Structures are given as C-alpha cells and as structure tokens.
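Deliverable D4.2, example record:
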Amino acid sequence: VGLLIIDEIHLLGEDRGAVLEAIVSRTRFISRFVQAENKIKPSNGGKVPELTRIMGLSTALANPYDLADWIGIDTEGFGVDAKQGLYNFRPSVRPVPMVVHIQGYPGRHYCPRMATMNKPCYSAIKDLSPNKPSMIFVASRRQTRLTAMDLISHAASEEDTKTFLNCDSDEYIEAIANTLTDDALKHTITFGIGLHHAGLTSKDRETVEKLYLEGTIQVLIATATLAWGVNLPAHLVIVKGTEFYDGKLNRYVDYPVTDVLQMMGRAGRPQFDKEGVAVIMCEESKKNFLKKFLYDPFPVESCLGERMCETINAEISIGTISSLSDAIGYLKWTFYARRVRLNPSFYGAKSSEEDDIEDFFLSVVKDTVDKLQEHGCITVEESEGTEVFVGGASLGRAASNFYLQYQTPKQMQSGTRSLKNILAQHASEAKKSQDVTKDAFLLGNAKTSFRILRIQTLTTKNVVSIYGIAKILHSLSHTHEFNELPVRHNEEELNLELSRSLPWGYDLSKVSWWMEKQKGAGKNVLDIMLDPHTKCFLLLQAFIFRAKLPISDYINDMRSVVEQIPRLLAAMEFVAEDDKSSAGNFELFSTFPLVRRIFNCGVMPDTPSPTNGPSIKLSNIQVVRELKKGSHFHSWSLEIDFNVFMNEWKKPFSKKANKNTSGGQSVSIILGTLKGGYLLSKSSFTIPDSVKDKSWKKHIKLEFEWSIAETQSGPYADGQVVILRVVNEFVNGCD
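Output generated by the structure prediction step:
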C-alpha cells in the first residue's frame, strides 16, 4: 500500500476511533519493520521515507502537531522539511461563511424543554430562511414527528398552512403522499415538511430526499445520523437539542462536539448561498461550553484505551507482538501514547515524567494481558528473566478474525459446550425418518452400494434438533456483541408481548420442556425484558418465523441484529472446532448448517424439500489409508464423488440476512459416529449459481482419525457403522 487517505480523522476521539488508530499505528509499525528488515537507508542524508504515505483530513484541531507526528510528519525539526504537509486552518475557514446563533432554554426535563423549542424553530425559519431550504436535527424518530406537527400548528395559527410547500398543484403532492408507507410522513409532506430517519423504508427516504433537493418541500426534520450520511445541504440548520437518550446508560447524554459540528456543517450551499446560518438550541447551562468549542479549534483525545484488549489481541494473533516489551513498543506508535505524555491525568498516568509514563504503559499492558489470558484469548509464558512471552490462542484468533469483542469467544465456547453435552445425551434417542432406497442417492459400482448400510432423510422436526437451533441463536444473542442493542423507554412491555407470540419464548422454556431443569432464583420478567440480549433473541425469532413486530423501530433493530448472525455463526463454528474431538460434536456441527440455511435463504427448520429439487447422488465411496510423509503412521480418509443433477430446477428468490453472501447453494458434509455423536471430519462447499440445468460433480476427501472411528462405531447388529450426513440449502439432507 503506497497511500492511505483517512477522512474525518478527528473521529479518533469517538467510539469508532480505536479501530482507526489501530489501522494507522499498525501501518506505520509494519512500514518501519519492513524498512529495517530491508535495510532501507535515508536518501541524501535526510529522513528515511515512509513506505506508506498517510493523508488525514479533519476539522480544525487544537492539537494538530500530535496528530501530524503520529502519521509521520516531522513536527520538531527546523529544516526545510520540518512541518511539511501540515495544514491547520481556523474553524471560520469554510467554502461558504457561516453565522452561528446559540440559544439557551431553561428546564430540567428533556421533553418539556424540547416542546418549548418548537415555536422558536418556526420563527427562525421564517426570519432567517423564509424562502430557502432549512434542516432541523433532532435526537429521535419521535421528535421528528412531534416537531413537524408543532410547525404545522404554528403555520395554521398564521393561516398559512402551505408556507413550506413550493408546489403548484395540491393533487401532485397528494399523489406522492399516497405512495408513502409511513402515516406521519404522509401527513407532514402535504404541508412541505419532510421526515428522515432510520425507521422509514428506503423508498420513503428516497422520495423525501428527492422532494427536498428539488425544492418542493422547504423543511426537512431528521435524526442526527443524517449529518454523516446523505449529502443534503441547507441554507439554515437548526440543531434542536444537544442531547440524546443513551439506552445503555438509561439517561440523556450530550452529543459529541464532532456531531454538532457535522450537523452545523450542512449549513451553506456552495454555488447557491453567500453565507449559511446555524441555530444551536441547547439547555441554558451548556451555552458557554458550546461557544468555547464551536468557535475554537477542537482537541482530539484517543479512545484506544477502551478497546485496548481487542487491539493487543489482534496484534498477538497475527504475530506482531510476542512479549510484553513488544506490546509496550507497539503502544509507542499509537496516538494514545502521544496523548498520555501530553495529558497524563486524563488517561490515569501519574505525571508526564518518563519513568511514570513507562510504569503506566507497563501497567496497561499487564492489565490487558491478564484480561486476555482470563478469557482464553492468549497464552502466557514467563521466562527465567523479567521478560514475559505471549502467544495467540484459538479464542483470540476467533476474536481477531471475526472482529469480536475479546469476551465473546469464551461465551460462544460455553454455549457450544453446553449444547454439545445435551446433544450427546439425547440426539441418538431422537426419532429418525423412514429409510429410502439406495438408488435415490447412489451412483456407480456395487462396491459403493455395499458400503452403504442404509439411507435416511434427515428430519429436523424432532425436539432435539429444534432445541439445538434455538440454543445456538440464544447463545449468540447473549454475547457481548449485543450489549448496546437499544431497549427504549417502555419497550419492556412490547418485548413481553412479542415473546408470548413466538414459539421459542424468551428463555428457551418452550423448546426445552423435555429436559430436566434446575430451578434458579426468580427474576422479575420485566427486568428480563429490559435486557438487550433478550430483545435480540426475540428479534431473531421474529425474523425466522416472520412474526409481526410491535412498532416500526423494531424493523431497523431486527435488520441490524440479523446482519451480524452469519459472521457470528462462522465465529462460533470456528470456536467449536477447538473441542472437535469430544462427544456431541457430530450433532453440533450438523446444526450449524441448518442455522446458516435459515439466514442465507429463509428455509425454515421444518420446511419440506421441494419435490422438483435437484438430485444429489454419491458415487465411488472408498476408505483410503496412506502413509504420512516422513512418518511411520498412516492417515485415513473417506473419499466420495458428490454429484448434483439440477433437473431444470430454479433457485427461488429469498431475502438473505446478509446481502454480501456469495451466490450458489451451500452444502455441508459431516462424518461422525452414532455412539456419543463424535465428529470425525467435515467439509463445506458451494454449488455455483451457474449450474442451472446441468450436472455438477466434486471429489471430496474427508480425513479422519481411524482410532476414534473404530472405537465409537459399534459394534451394532449391523457391524461397525459411521454416519455421513449431507445438508444442502434447499434439501433437508440425508444420513
């Protein structure tokens, strides 16, 4: 990589900033390592050139030298090259000059204070932007509706209800309103006021954006996320309130100053305006704070400390860090280290003295390593000296590869082990479906047919299979990945109502009636419904069983949850492979493709196979023993030719959970034993979509441990038996 460009680099101080900081720090760290390894020398006695040039763009900053030094600009020299590439402009420098009005409003309580701002909003539009587009930013979807209704009321009181509508014909705007699905938007759009938030359908949002850009509607009321998304400029921007409700903290908190600056930045349209106008409406006590930071350059602090475990774990997993001293050395490349030296008290260091800084870095690294070791992400080995060596573990690699919080893989491991124990006890007792003729599944010679004792279609209607699917999704729902799923005011009642209509309940009680249960301490059901993990599990069930959601806000919540499942499911399967030699794994790894099938193509657990579906036939089945290279031991494998005949079958349209899922039909083949449910081997592949009315063939080689197969495969009345399970996306599969 020769050039790395980062926009909005001042977002280092926000939640996402830790990822940005890790990327840039790793880029420079590796760049210097490669330079040293290749012995690249400075040209003309100057500085060694950076292998990757980094360019950062941001708002005006109070500490630009820290940021510049971090991305590789010489900020301390006095030569010709000193500070070359550093440009820091005043906040007032912008393509269209902007006038800012800051207004304070009394009142301790949020909702009444918001209501008192509606009349000043109307007055500001009439005074400052009577004929030009105006945008009002509010904190919630509910506030978009309330604000719009109040603006219509104030316009009606002046007997000019269409003041914000620039349309010659009422029939035109009525016709457009009839194409919209949101009832509130249908009403407000006829008065020239548009709403824009994540609860609207994409078609409704596109319609509103088009009407606003062409000038048919003059006012757009939006949630703050619009400031970062669609480029919709305005002459006047009103920020109505500088707080939002944080579901995790259960209270109102201030917007980050970067968000307020971004909203204000929408004011002033190049080529149309000579100046823009921004009106900030806030609680009275916050006026002076906003004046300070809106007119002065913005200080950026690091938030890497909040994601230190994930960052260090990722570096250990890829081998960048192998000891505590490596970790401290890595930290020195970060923006975090620069800010600790200049603002030690903010980060918890004693002082800016070098010894105190070194002690602080050591304590941070030790604390991080302890947490990672506790959660099984790394291994730690102490040497005879003072050095401590660290190495990656499978749980740590899962966190790094699948972009998880460091606590999540251990939670996944706990969930899979619990399910595996249950499957090992009960799976063999489950009622199997009828045998089918070998001719339906076998091709080839008599030897192949002789090896197959019998073939059964796979049923997922039994209680064990349904429980397995539900348990996996319940475990995923209760990981740290969903800690911040919003549970809004009064949603606990809605969650309780939703749980009563769903087949698995909120705690698996509806699908685990056949198991012996241990009574735990009673907990208030409404407290359970306030848990974001409970809401997550309910939303997953609502997606699977196409349940009616109580309010439109849940649509977006469900989408955000469901989109993460393919990644988390792959991570859970990766974690489970660490225990693949233990009992119960055959049924466990058979359940993963069933869950994946639900989310990839909407096939429910009990959906019957299509009668005109593709034919699957196996041929040339043989067990092969080979001598391992450089060893006296043998390796064993089961080799199969997997044949598919499409029979002119067309893949039905399905709404995928993950739009990025590659095309084709997923097939999983699992080899295991009936006794104890031991996993011997597994393989997954995809039949490409290009295979339409043709046949398709793949040779599969499943390597396995002969000793496990021999000890766990019988003896039964039929001899020693192992199971080959085939699970296809649109065929329920067979044993």
